[in-house]
Amino acid sequence: MNERTRLFGWILLLVTLAVVPLFLHSARWIDFLEMTLFVAVLGQGWNILAGYGGQYSFGHALFFGTGAYIQALLQVKFGLSPWVAMWFAVSGGALVGAFVGYLSFRYGLRGSYFALITLAFAEAFLVLSRSLKSITEGGQGVQLPLNQDPEQAIATFQFNFAGPFLSEYGFYYTIFIILLLAYGLTAWMERSRFGAQLVAVRENEDAAKALGINAFKVKMGAICLSAGITATCGVYYVQKFLFIEPGIAFGPGKSVEALFAPIIGGLGTVLGPLLGSLFIHGVGEMTKATIGQALGGRPGVDLILFGIILILVLAFLPRGLVGLLEAIWKRLTGGRNA
Amino acid sequence: MLEVCGINKTFGGLKAVTDANLSVSEGKIVSLIGPNGAGKTTLFAVISGFLKSDSGSVIFNGTDITGKPPHWICQQGLVRTFQVVQPFASLTVRENIAVGAHTRIAGRKQALARAADVAKLVDMDGMLEQSAGDLTIAGRKRLELARALATEPKLLLLDEVMAGLNATEIHELLPVIRGIRDSGVTIFLIEHVMQAVMSLSDYTYVLNQGVMIAEGEPKNVTRSPEVIEAYLGHGAAARIAKMAGGNA
Ligand SMILES: Nc1ncnc2c1ncn2[C@@H]1O[C@H](COP(=O)(O)OP(=O)(O)O)[C@@H](O)[C@H]1O
Ligand SMILES: [Mg+2]
């Protein structure tokens, strides 16, 4: 696929995402799309470090939760504007990323050791957020005061009581803009020296070092960027649900969600996490509507199905859905545009 | 250009390199030979910063680079290749070489363009879009060389770039290496293929069981009894001398 076709495909996809909710006057479907884009951004955060950098984290909830808690607490405890708090939330997430990265990469922890370190930190933050009641309100979580004044909708970054358009689409376009920023950043990275060096470190760290790459510095850059994007998801979550508690913030749920989408969609590609998220949520909805219904609406059926899909993808699509798409495209164009 | 003084390196109890001294002067091709396990690769790893020596120093262009990290040493203009090739397997040949080019060039476009130029130097310009993982051994060895060259080194350390190649491939590679030297890059190489050592190098060091046992012009060094013994076993030099005497 050449650059032109690729660009055209992207424009088509993004324009579709930009206008499609305007035709859906169902809150449920807009919610569905919002969650799809949310996971697509969460997945891109993970993808930068793991897909491009080869550093597989099992604890990305650490950065999501840090972002979410900073966003919530700065508003509730210090009365900061959400628009100010978010800068602290995103840099706080990046800072925690730098801290974990420094500890891991300075001592050359790779592979499963790195995965375990990130998991351990996420668990530690889970415990801390439950026990440090004076700061985090403990297990009951932090609730943001609800704003009911339409005039204050933008100032409070709460769209529930905003005007007709914002209350319906506000959060959809918020996550859409976050997606544009995160994906734009990833696309830029892919075409930069930093991106090339990050991929080189993933492919072979010794060879990268021999060719003049400061592998430590490159990995630190990747984890900060990755954690920052993931923390942005935390900010979004808090503004949308006005609530955060330890399990949602630091539990394994978000860590797993973050890695599902890019693995299924295609590791180390810009499109992968979005494609993966669309697929996962599409399939999830369909199973809930069909098998789930047939079994009497029992939860967990979709999770079992995801497990099976994940195994199938790992076994037959090493390059994920993006790889499949490229193969199909090659077939269709007879390899002319390959 | 390169001064190595009194390098010692042990692995556990094993003395891999003992009190190694050598120097490489600018514009030359210098070789390091010796039997398997002599400690040649270990010495290269110490020079290029991949291993810390127990004692001794490495001076490059008047700068003490002892114990400095490999990426920093590369940025100073000293680059190594690996005996066991280490391609970035899922990248194309061009992207592989561009990684080296990025050491001096920030722009992606410029680095990819430079990669194509460097590929020409090692006759790889026909394979730019091939995946590095699909290359033959000969291709991988050339890629290893090209990537290192793309970092624009002043001194190039080549660890057995001829190993695993057939006679034709070796024959094709010799002028490439000479060309690199003629373009102003000093070369220090480890080689097993004697034909290559004899035809390429201006000066040779011989390492045996971690000890430097001989040095000099290649044709003199390979005649030295100590070197023959190291390669062919104890008493070999005496037997050869005796045979030569008997025949006379
Ligand atoms: N990382 C290592 N750990 C332990 N022993 C090593 C290591 N690297 C090399 N050696 C040993 O050091 C000796 C020299 O090895 P090497 O430098 O690879 O020799 P050469 O390149 O001359 O064939 C060998 O006996 C080898 O087994
Ligand atoms: Mg060796």
Description:
The complex is a heterodimer of chains A (338) and B (248). By secondary structure, chain A is an all-alpha fold. Chain A has one domain. Helices cover 77% and strands 1% of the residues of chain A. In chain A, helix 3 packs parallel to helix 5, helix 9 crosses helix 11 and helix 13 runs parallel beside helix 16. The model of chain A has no long low-confidence stretch (mean pLDDT 90). The longest helix of chain B has 16 residues. Chain B starts with a strand and ends with a helix. The chains are: A mainly alpha (338), B alpha/beta (248). At the A-B interface, helix 9 and helix 10 of A face helix 2, helix 3 and helix 5 of B. The complex binds adenosine-5'-diphosphate and magnesium ion. The site of magnesium ion (MG) has 3 residues of chain B, from helix 1.
**Could you report the average pLDDT of chain A, rounded to the nearest whole number?**
90
**Biggest interface and its residues per chain?**
A-B, 19 and 33 residues
Give a quick account of the main beta sheet of chain A: strands, pairing sense, barrel closure. Answer: 2 strands, antiparallel
Number of helices of chain B: 10
- Averaged pLDDT of chain B: 89
Question: Briefly, what is this?
Answer:
The complex is a heterodimer of chains A (338) and B (248). In chain A, 77% of the residues lie in helices and 1% in strands.
How is the secondary structure organized here?
The complex is a heterodimer of chains A (338) and B (248).
Chain A lengths: L2 H21 L3 H26 L8 H16 L5 H25 L4 H21 L1 H4 L5 E2 L9 H4 L7 H27 L2 H11 L1 H6 L4 H27 L1 E2 L1 H5 L1 H14 L6 H23 L6 H16 L3 H13 L6
Helix pairs in contact in A: 1-8, 2-8, 2-11, 2-13, 2-14, 3-4, 3-5, 3-11, 4-11, 8-11, 9-11, 13-14, 13-16, 14-15
Chain B lengths: L1 E10 L2 E11 L4 E5 L6 H8 L7 E6 L2 E2 L5 H7 L1 E3 L12 H9 L6 H14 L15 H14 L4 E5 L7 H16 L3 E5 L3 H7 L2 E6 L2 E6 L1 H4 L3 H8 L3 H12 L1
Parallel strand pairs in B: 3-8, 3-9, 6-7, 7-8
Antiparallel strand pairs in B: 1-2, 1-4, 4-5, 9-10
Helix pairs in contact in B: 3-4, 3-5, 4-5
Bound molecules: adenosine-5'-diphosphate (ADP) and magnesium ion.
Magnesium ion binds next to helix 1 of chain B.
